[in-house]
Here is the input.
Amino acid sequence: MVEHLSMIQLAEIVAVLAGFLCVWLTIRENIWCWPAGLLQVSLYVWIFYDAKLYSDFGLHIFYIFLQFYGWYHWLHGGTRGHLSVSGLSRPILLIWVTAALAGSLAWGSIMERYTDASVPYWDAYTTAASLIAQWLLTRKKLESWYFWISVDFVAIGVYLFKGLYLTSGLYLAFLIMATAGLIRWRNVLILEGRSSA
Here is the structure.
């Protein structure tokens, strides 16, 4: 069976497995989520370029740097070397939501005008919202999971449309896992008596 798979298909299989492991470890606040994520995003740089999903391609290049930053920040960013889950104030959350929508429209119009992107605005939304979600995740902000849930929902449709069935299945799993992550991190926040920061 393996001899009948293309290099892209093999890369997608490995990326899916690494992505699943990354999110599973992230939900548990396990530092090893970052190396697993690094493998996943590195492979998706190639996969998305091949699929002409240029916003996702660029996003995953940026993710490589965020993987290293998140790894470092989770190790050294909190008090006494531990970064705890915290939440955003409503005004700050509103700023991030507005940034995601504005970024989607701006980037989508650029992709529509200057590239042969397949679904420029949907691809741009997953890019803009993912950047925000990943940044908030590096800071262990609860609201990162809300952004991930919205990204996963949109991404499932985009990847089905592009014939990336394994990746679409991965994002369905991500949607379920992001919901579990939201619940788990919310419980951590409640148990530790922290809220907006």
